[in-house]
Amino acid sequence: MSAELQLVVRSGHPDFLDLPWAEPLEEWHSERLVRMARGISRHVVRFVAYDDRVYALKETEAGAAEREYRMLLALREERLPAVEPVGVARWRAPGGGPDRATLITRYLDYALPYHYLLARRGRPGLLDRLLDGGVVLMARLHLEGFYWGDFSLSNALFRRDAGAFIAYLVDAETGELRPSLSDAMRDNDVDVAVENIAGGLIDLQASGRIEEGLDPFALAASFRERYHGLWLELTREDEVPADEQWHIHRRMERLNELGFDVEEIALVRSADGERLRIRPTLVEEGHHARALESRTGLRVQENQARRLLNDIAAYGAWLEHVEGSPVPEAAAAYRWLREIYEPAIARVPEALRSRREPPELFHEMLRHRDALSEEVGHNPGNDVAMDSYVASVLPGLPEERLLRED
Ligand SMILES: Nc1ncnc2c1ncn2[C@@H]1O[C@H](COP(=O)(O)OP(=O)(O)OP(=O)(O)O)[C@@H](O)[C@H]1O
Ligand SMILES: [Mg+2]
Predict the structure, then answer these.
(1) Is residue 292 part of a domain?
(2) The whole model's pTM is what?
(3) Which of 141, 263, 382, 400 measures 20 to 30 Å from 38, CA to CA?
(4) Domain check: are 48 and 32 in the same one?
Protein backbone atom coordinates (compact mmCIF):
# COMPACT_ATOMS: atom_id res chain seq x y z
CA MET A 1 0.00 0.00 0.00
CA SER A 2 1.35 3.44 -0.83
CA ALA A 3 1.41 6.43 1.48
CA GLU A 4 -1.68 8.53 1.53
CA LEU A 5 -2.56 11.97 2.83
CA GLN A 6 -6.17 12.90 3.47
CA LEU A 7 -6.79 16.53 4.28
CA VAL A 8 -10.07 18.12 5.18
CA VAL A 9 -9.84 21.90 5.44
CA ARG A 10 -12.60 24.45 5.86
CA SER A 11 -12.82 27.06 3.15
CA GLY A 12 -11.09 30.37 3.68
CA HIS A 13 -7.85 28.78 4.89
CA PRO A 14 -4.65 27.63 3.17
CA ASP A 15 -4.57 24.06 1.86
CA PHE A 16 -1.55 23.15 4.03
CA LEU A 17 -0.23 20.89 1.24
CA ASP A 18 3.25 22.37 1.50
CA LEU A 19 3.79 20.93 4.99
CA PRO A 20 5.97 17.82 5.49
CA TRP A 21 3.12 15.49 6.43
CA ALA A 22 5.20 12.36 5.83
CA GLU A 23 7.25 13.14 8.96
CA PRO A 24 6.00 13.00 12.56
CA LEU A 25 5.12 16.54 13.64
CA GLU A 26 7.87 16.52 16.24
CA GLU A 27 10.50 16.10 13.54
CA TRP A 28 9.27 18.70 11.09
CA HIS A 29 11.61 21.21 9.55
CA SER A 30 9.63 23.82 7.75
CA GLU A 31 9.93 27.52 7.15
CA ARG A 32 6.33 27.76 8.22
CA LEU A 33 6.98 26.67 11.81
CA VAL A 34 6.83 29.39 14.43
CA ARG A 35 7.29 29.15 18.18
CA MET A 36 4.35 30.45 20.12
CA ALA A 37 3.66 30.67 23.84
CA ARG A 38 1.49 27.70 24.83
CA GLY A 39 0.25 25.58 27.70
CA ILE A 40 1.41 22.17 28.83
CA SER A 41 0.13 19.23 26.79
CA ARG A 42 0.48 15.49 26.31
CA HIS A 43 0.37 15.68 22.54
CA VAL A 44 2.85 17.32 20.25
CA VAL A 45 1.47 20.77 19.41
CA ARG A 46 3.29 23.06 16.98
CA PHE A 47 2.39 26.22 15.12
CA VAL A 48 2.66 27.22 11.46
CA ALA A 49 2.31 30.68 9.92
CA TYR A 50 0.71 31.66 6.62
CA ASP A 51 1.19 35.40 6.22
CA ASP A 52 -0.13 36.88 9.42
CA ARG A 53 -2.33 33.92 10.22
CA VAL A 54 -1.04 31.29 12.59
CA TYR A 55 -2.43 27.78 12.99
CA ALA A 56 -1.99 25.24 15.77
CA LEU A 57 -1.34 21.63 14.80
CA LYS A 58 -1.95 18.87 17.31
CA GLU A 59 -0.88 15.35 16.43
CA THR A 60 -3.09 12.65 17.85
CA GLU A 61 -5.02 9.52 16.85
CA ALA A 62 -7.41 9.58 13.90
CA GLY A 63 -10.59 9.03 15.89
CA ALA A 64 -9.64 11.62 18.48
CA ALA A 65 -8.75 14.29 15.93
CA GLU A 66 -12.02 13.91 14.09
CA ARG A 67 -14.04 13.84 17.26
CA GLU A 68 -12.39 16.98 18.59
CA TYR A 69 -12.81 18.69 15.23
CA ARG A 70 -16.52 17.99 15.21
CA MET A 71 -16.89 19.01 18.84
CA LEU A 72 -15.20 22.35 18.19
CA LEU A 73 -17.48 22.90 15.20
CA ALA A 74 -20.53 22.27 17.38
CA LEU A 75 -19.25 24.67 20.06
CA ARG A 76 -18.76 27.39 17.50
CA GLU A 77 -22.22 26.82 16.16
CA GLU A 78 -23.53 27.50 19.66
CA ARG A 79 -21.39 30.65 19.65
CA LEU A 80 -19.40 29.48 22.63
CA PRO A 81 -15.88 30.76 23.11
CA ALA A 82 -13.60 28.03 21.77
CA VAL A 83 -10.69 27.86 19.35
CA GLU A 84 -11.72 27.70 15.70
CA PRO A 85 -11.47 24.27 14.07
CA VAL A 86 -9.89 24.45 10.62
CA GLY A 87 -9.29 20.89 9.51
CA VAL A 88 -7.98 17.41 10.05
CA ALA A 89 -5.07 15.75 8.28
CA ARG A 90 -4.68 11.97 8.18
CA TRP A 91 -1.51 10.32 7.11
CA ARG A 92 -1.41 6.64 6.23
CA ALA A 93 2.11 5.37 6.18
CA PRO A 94 3.22 3.04 3.42
CA GLY A 95 3.39 -0.66 4.22
CA GLY A 96 1.07 -0.45 7.19
CA GLY A 97 3.20 1.83 9.38
CA PRO A 98 1.41 3.78 12.11
CA ASP A 99 -1.33 6.16 11.04
CA ARG A 100 -1.22 9.73 12.24
CA ALA A 101 -3.87 12.39 12.47
CA THR A 102 -3.45 16.08 13.07
CA LEU A 103 -6.06 18.53 14.23
CA ILE A 104 -5.64 21.99 12.75
CA THR A 105 -7.07 24.98 14.62
CA ARG A 106 -6.67 28.68 14.07
CA TYR A 107 -4.37 30.34 16.56
CA LEU A 108 -6.55 32.55 18.66
CA ASP A 109 -5.23 36.11 18.30
CA TYR A 110 -4.69 37.90 21.60
CA ALA A 111 -5.23 34.67 23.52
CA LEU A 112 -2.91 34.37 26.47
CA PRO A 113 -1.92 31.18 28.26
CA TYR A 114 -2.23 31.50 32.02
CA HIS A 115 1.45 30.93 32.70
CA TYR A 116 2.33 33.86 30.47
CA LEU A 117 0.05 36.08 32.52
CA LEU A 118 1.40 34.75 35.80
CA ALA A 119 5.03 34.86 34.73
CA ARG A 120 4.79 38.60 34.72
CA ARG A 121 3.86 38.45 38.37
CA GLY A 122 0.81 40.31 37.41
CA ARG A 123 -1.34 42.64 39.35
CA PRO A 124 -2.92 41.46 42.56
CA GLY A 125 -6.06 39.46 42.03
CA LEU A 126 -4.91 38.15 38.66
CA LEU A 127 -5.54 34.54 39.59
CA ASP A 128 -8.99 35.47 40.83
CA ARG A 129 -9.79 37.10 37.54
CA LEU A 130 -8.56 34.09 35.60
CA LEU A 131 -10.69 31.76 37.70
CA ASP A 132 -13.69 34.04 37.26
CA GLY A 133 -13.21 33.84 33.50
CA GLY A 134 -13.07 30.06 33.80
CA VAL A 135 -16.25 29.96 35.88
CA VAL A 136 -18.19 31.96 33.29
CA LEU A 137 -16.91 29.72 30.51
CA MET A 138 -17.91 26.60 32.41
CA ALA A 139 -21.40 27.92 33.17
CA ARG A 140 -21.89 28.89 29.52
CA LEU A 141 -20.81 25.46 28.36
CA HIS A 142 -23.11 23.78 30.84
CA LEU A 143 -26.08 25.88 29.82
CA GLU A 144 -25.62 24.54 26.30
CA GLY A 145 -25.27 20.95 27.48
CA PHE A 146 -21.52 20.66 27.03
CA TYR A 147 -19.65 18.48 29.48
CA TRP A 148 -15.97 19.35 29.31
CA GLY A 149 -14.41 16.65 31.43
CA ASP A 150 -10.97 18.27 31.53
CA PHE A 151 -11.10 21.93 32.48
CA SER A 152 -7.65 23.09 33.53
CA LEU A 153 -5.75 26.34 33.31
CA SER A 154 -3.78 24.80 30.39
CA ASN A 155 -6.90 23.85 28.51
CA ALA A 156 -8.20 27.38 28.44
CA LEU A 157 -6.85 30.54 26.88
CA PHE A 158 -7.54 33.99 28.26
CA ARG A 159 -8.34 37.14 26.37
CA ARG A 160 -8.30 40.58 27.94
CA ASP A 161 -11.75 42.03 28.42
CA ALA A 162 -11.69 45.55 29.82
CA GLY A 163 -9.52 44.55 32.76
CA ALA A 164 -11.21 41.18 33.24
CA PHE A 165 -10.53 37.99 31.27
CA ILE A 166 -12.73 35.95 29.03
CA ALA A 167 -11.77 32.29 28.89
CA TYR A 168 -11.76 30.25 25.67
CA LEU A 169 -11.88 26.50 25.50
CA VAL A 170 -8.86 25.11 23.74
CA ASP A 171 -8.91 21.36 24.34
CA ALA A 172 -12.23 19.65 23.56
CA GLU A 173 -10.87 16.12 23.41
CA THR A 174 -12.83 14.82 26.39
CA GLY A 175 -15.99 16.84 25.72
CA GLU A 176 -19.52 15.58 25.25
CA LEU A 177 -22.45 17.55 23.92
CA ARG A 178 -25.91 16.59 25.16
CA PRO A 179 -29.37 18.15 25.01
CA SER A 180 -28.86 19.12 28.65
CA LEU A 181 -26.66 18.18 31.57
CA SER A 182 -27.77 16.57 34.81
CA ASP A 183 -26.69 18.15 38.08
CA ALA A 184 -24.46 15.15 38.67
CA MET A 185 -22.61 15.69 35.41
CA ARG A 186 -22.13 19.35 36.12
CA ASP A 187 -20.83 18.56 39.59
CA ASN A 188 -18.49 16.01 38.15
CA ASP A 189 -17.17 18.48 35.60
CA VAL A 190 -16.55 21.01 38.35
CA ASP A 191 -14.80 18.38 40.51
CA VAL A 192 -12.42 17.63 37.64
CA ALA A 193 -11.79 21.36 37.21
CA VAL A 194 -11.05 21.87 40.90
CA GLU A 195 -8.61 18.99 40.93
CA ASN A 196 -6.84 20.19 37.78
CA ILE A 197 -6.67 23.76 39.03
CA ALA A 198 -5.18 22.65 42.36
CA GLY A 199 -2.59 20.59 40.49
CA GLY A 200 -1.73 23.53 38.25
CA LEU A 201 -1.40 25.88 41.19
CA ILE A 202 0.86 23.48 43.09
CA ASP A 203 3.16 23.33 40.06
CA LEU A 204 3.15 27.11 39.80
CA GLN A 205 4.03 27.41 43.44
CA ALA A 206 6.85 24.89 43.13
CA SER A 207 8.35 26.95 40.33
CA GLY A 208 7.99 30.18 42.29
CA ARG A 209 5.44 31.72 39.95
CA ILE A 210 2.86 32.41 42.64
CA GLU A 211 3.21 33.44 46.24
CA GLU A 212 4.21 30.80 48.75
CA GLY A 213 1.56 31.85 51.21
CA LEU A 214 -1.24 31.06 48.82
CA ASP A 215 -3.26 27.93 49.51
CA PRO A 216 -3.72 26.09 46.19
CA PHE A 217 -6.49 23.87 47.53
CA ALA A 218 -8.51 26.74 48.97
CA LEU A 219 -8.15 28.74 45.78
CA ALA A 220 -9.10 25.76 43.63
CA ALA A 221 -12.07 25.05 45.89
CA SER A 222 -13.18 28.65 45.44
CA PHE A 223 -13.75 27.79 41.77
CA ARG A 224 -16.55 25.47 42.92
CA GLU A 225 -18.12 28.14 45.11
CA ARG A 226 -17.97 30.76 42.39
CA TYR A 227 -19.43 28.36 39.89
CA HIS A 228 -22.31 27.44 42.19
CA GLY A 229 -22.99 31.09 42.90
CA LEU A 230 -23.18 31.96 39.22
CA TRP A 231 -25.19 28.89 38.30
CA LEU A 232 -27.74 29.60 40.98
CA GLU A 233 -28.04 33.18 39.86
CA LEU A 234 -28.56 32.06 36.26
CA THR A 235 -31.04 29.27 36.78
CA ARG A 236 -32.68 29.66 40.17
CA GLU A 237 -36.44 29.76 40.52
CA ASP A 238 -37.79 32.70 42.54
CA GLU A 239 -41.12 32.85 44.28
CA VAL A 240 -42.50 36.31 44.88
CA PRO A 241 -45.82 37.91 45.84
CA ALA A 242 -47.97 38.20 42.71
CA ASP A 243 -48.49 41.92 43.20
CA GLU A 244 -44.76 42.60 43.27
CA GLN A 245 -44.01 42.10 39.63
CA TRP A 246 -40.99 44.36 39.78
CA HIS A 247 -39.13 41.27 41.01
CA ILE A 248 -39.32 39.95 37.47
CA HIS A 249 -37.59 43.03 36.07
CA ARG A 250 -35.04 42.98 38.86
CA ARG A 251 -34.15 39.42 38.05
CA MET A 252 -33.84 40.20 34.34
CA GLU A 253 -31.69 43.23 35.09
CA ARG A 254 -29.44 41.24 37.37
CA LEU A 255 -28.93 38.62 34.64
CA ASN A 256 -28.18 41.35 32.11
CA GLU A 257 -25.66 42.86 34.50
CA LEU A 258 -23.95 39.50 34.63
CA GLY A 259 -23.80 39.66 30.84
CA PHE A 260 -26.52 37.10 30.13
CA ASP A 261 -29.60 37.49 28.01
CA VAL A 262 -32.93 35.97 28.89
CA GLU A 263 -34.68 34.40 25.97
CA GLU A 264 -37.72 33.27 27.84
CA ILE A 265 -39.06 33.63 31.32
CA ALA A 266 -41.45 31.08 32.74
CA LEU A 267 -44.08 32.43 35.11
CA VAL A 268 -46.33 30.24 37.19
CA ARG A 269 -49.08 31.73 39.34
CA SER A 270 -50.13 29.78 42.41
CA ALA A 271 -53.71 28.44 42.64
CA ASP A 272 -54.75 31.17 45.07
CA GLY A 273 -53.24 33.80 42.76
CA GLU A 274 -51.03 35.17 45.50
CA ARG A 275 -47.62 33.93 44.54
CA LEU A 276 -45.65 34.02 41.34
CA ARG A 277 -42.84 31.67 40.48
CA ILE A 278 -40.27 33.02 38.01
CA ARG A 279 -37.73 30.93 36.22
CA PRO A 280 -35.57 32.22 33.38
CA THR A 281 -35.16 29.63 30.67
CA LEU A 282 -32.39 29.75 28.11
CA VAL A 283 -29.97 32.40 29.01
CA GLU A 284 -27.15 33.32 26.72
CA GLU A 285 -24.06 35.32 27.48
CA GLY A 286 -23.19 38.44 25.47
CA HIS A 287 -25.97 40.87 26.42
CA HIS A 288 -23.93 44.05 26.10
CA ALA A 289 -21.83 42.75 23.22
CA ARG A 290 -24.95 42.17 21.15
CA ALA A 291 -26.40 45.56 22.06
CA LEU A 292 -23.18 47.31 21.04
CA GLU A 293 -22.93 45.36 17.81
CA SER A 294 -26.46 46.22 16.77
CA ARG A 295 -25.79 49.92 17.37
CA THR A 296 -22.28 50.29 16.01
CA GLY A 297 -21.32 47.11 14.17
CA LEU A 298 -18.38 46.70 16.56
CA ARG A 299 -17.81 43.14 17.70
CA VAL A 300 -16.13 43.14 21.06
CA GLN A 301 -16.22 41.18 24.28
CA GLU A 302 -18.77 41.53 27.02
CA ASN A 303 -17.01 43.82 29.50
CA GLN A 304 -15.50 45.90 26.75
CA ALA A 305 -19.00 46.36 25.32
CA ARG A 306 -20.32 47.42 28.69
CA ARG A 307 -17.57 50.03 28.90
CA LEU A 308 -18.17 51.32 25.37
CA LEU A 309 -21.95 51.49 25.88
CA ASN A 310 -21.37 53.64 28.96
CA ASP A 311 -19.18 55.92 26.93
CA ILE A 312 -21.86 56.15 24.23
CA ALA A 313 -24.46 57.04 26.85
CA ALA A 314 -22.20 59.76 28.26
CA TYR A 315 -21.57 61.09 24.77
CA GLY A 316 -25.33 61.07 24.01
CA ALA A 317 -26.00 63.08 27.17
CA TRP A 318 -23.31 65.56 26.25
CA LEU A 319 -24.68 65.93 22.71
CA GLU A 320 -28.11 66.56 24.12
CA HIS A 321 -26.68 69.19 26.42
CA VAL A 322 -24.80 71.12 23.72
CA GLU A 323 -27.43 70.74 21.02
CA GLY A 324 -30.34 71.45 23.31
CA SER A 325 -32.52 68.58 22.09
CA PRO A 326 -32.58 64.85 22.72
CA VAL A 327 -30.45 62.73 20.40
CA PRO A 328 -31.91 59.32 19.49
CA GLU A 329 -29.83 56.47 20.86
CA ALA A 330 -29.01 55.07 17.42
CA ALA A 331 -27.81 58.46 16.20
CA ALA A 332 -25.69 58.99 19.31
CA ALA A 333 -24.09 55.57 18.84
CA TYR A 334 -23.28 56.25 15.22
CA ARG A 335 -21.82 59.67 15.94
CA TRP A 336 -19.83 58.29 18.85
CA LEU A 337 -18.30 55.69 16.53
CA ARG A 338 -17.28 58.29 13.94
CA GLU A 339 -16.39 61.16 16.24
CA ILE A 340 -15.01 59.44 19.33
CA TYR A 341 -14.06 55.81 18.93
CA GLU A 342 -12.50 55.69 15.48
CA PRO A 343 -10.46 58.91 15.89
CA ALA A 344 -9.14 57.65 19.24
CA ILE A 345 -7.95 54.34 17.76
CA ALA A 346 -6.50 56.19 14.76
CA ARG A 347 -4.12 58.03 17.10
CA VAL A 348 -2.36 54.77 17.93
CA PRO A 349 0.61 54.30 15.61
CA GLU A 350 0.38 51.22 13.38
CA ALA A 351 3.49 49.70 14.93
CA LEU A 352 1.90 49.62 18.40
CA ARG A 353 -1.56 48.43 17.38
CA SER A 354 -0.91 44.74 17.91
CA ARG A 355 -0.16 45.15 21.59
CA ARG A 356 -3.83 45.30 22.51
CA GLU A 357 -7.12 44.82 20.67
CA PRO A 358 -8.75 48.13 19.65
CA PRO A 359 -11.58 48.03 22.24
CA GLU A 360 -9.02 47.21 24.93
CA LEU A 361 -6.91 50.16 23.79
CA PHE A 362 -9.96 52.36 24.11
CA HIS A 363 -10.73 50.99 27.56
CA GLU A 364 -7.15 51.58 28.68
CA MET A 365 -7.20 55.10 27.27
CA LEU A 366 -10.34 55.82 29.33
CA ARG A 367 -8.61 54.53 32.45
CA HIS A 368 -5.57 56.57 31.66
CA ARG A 369 -7.76 59.62 31.10
CA ASP A 370 -9.37 59.14 34.51
CA ALA A 371 -5.95 58.97 36.13
CA LEU A 372 -4.80 62.10 34.29
CA SER A 373 -7.99 63.92 35.27
CA GLU A 374 -7.27 63.22 38.90
CA GLU A 375 -3.73 64.45 38.51
CA VAL A 376 -4.47 67.71 36.73
CA GLY A 377 -7.87 68.38 38.24
CA HIS A 378 -9.82 68.43 34.98
CA ASN A 379 -10.64 66.08 32.12
CA PRO A 380 -7.91 66.52 29.49
CA GLY A 381 -10.03 64.94 26.74
CA ASN A 382 -9.54 61.79 24.69
CA ASP A 383 -6.92 63.14 22.29
CA VAL A 384 -4.56 64.21 25.03
CA ALA A 385 -5.26 61.02 27.01
CA MET A 386 -4.58 58.75 24.05
CA ASP A 387 -1.41 60.59 23.06
CA SER A 388 -0.16 60.36 26.62
CA TYR A 389 -1.09 56.67 26.83
CA VAL A 390 0.68 55.98 23.53
CA ALA A 391 3.77 57.87 24.66
CA SER A 392 4.09 56.62 28.22
CA VAL A 393 2.27 53.30 28.64
CA LEU A 394 1.85 51.40 25.40
CA PRO A 395 5.53 51.15 24.40
CA GLY A 396 6.21 49.33 27.68
CA LEU A 397 3.59 46.66 27.02
CA PRO A 398 4.48 43.43 25.23
CA GLU A 399 3.13 42.47 21.82
CA GLU A 400 0.17 40.18 22.47
CA ARG A 401 -1.64 39.51 19.21
CA LEU A 402 0.61 36.63 18.30
CA LEU A 403 2.45 35.64 21.39
CA ARG A 404 5.86 34.24 20.49
CA GLU A 405 7.70 32.03 22.90
CA ASP A 406 10.33 33.84 24.97
N1 LIG B 1 -5.79 27.28 18.37
C2 LIG B 1 -4.92 27.55 19.33
N3 LIG B 1 -4.59 28.83 19.62
C4 LIG B 1 -3.68 29.13 20.58
N5 LIG B 1 -3.06 28.20 21.34
C6 LIG B 1 -3.35 26.92 21.11
C7 LIG B 1 -4.30 26.51 20.12
N8 LIG B 1 -4.37 25.16 20.12
C9 LIG B 1 -3.53 24.74 21.09
N10 LIG B 1 -2.91 25.78 21.69
C11 LIG B 1 -1.92 25.74 22.78
O12 LIG B 1 -1.39 24.42 22.85
C13 LIG B 1 -1.59 23.88 24.15
C14 LIG B 1 -1.87 22.39 24.05
O15 LIG B 1 -3.07 22.12 23.32
P16 LIG B 1 -4.11 21.01 23.82
O17 LIG B 1 -4.51 21.32 25.21
O18 LIG B 1 -5.17 20.89 22.80
O19 LIG B 1 -3.17 19.71 23.82
P20 LIG B 1 -3.41 18.31 24.57
O21 LIG B 1 -2.20 17.49 24.32
O22 LIG B 1 -4.71 17.71 24.11
O23 LIG B 1 -3.53 18.66 26.08
P24 LIG B 1 -3.84 17.63 27.29
O25 LIG B 1 -2.51 17.28 27.86
O26 LIG B 1 -4.65 18.50 28.20
O27 LIG B 1 -4.62 16.51 26.71
C28 LIG B 1 -2.71 24.68 24.75
O29 LIG B 1 -2.57 24.77 26.15
C30 LIG B 1 -2.57 26.05 24.10
O31 LIG B 1 -1.69 26.87 24.85
MG1 LIG C 1 -4.67 20.22 26.86
Answers:
(1) no
(2) 0.91
(3) 141
(4) yes
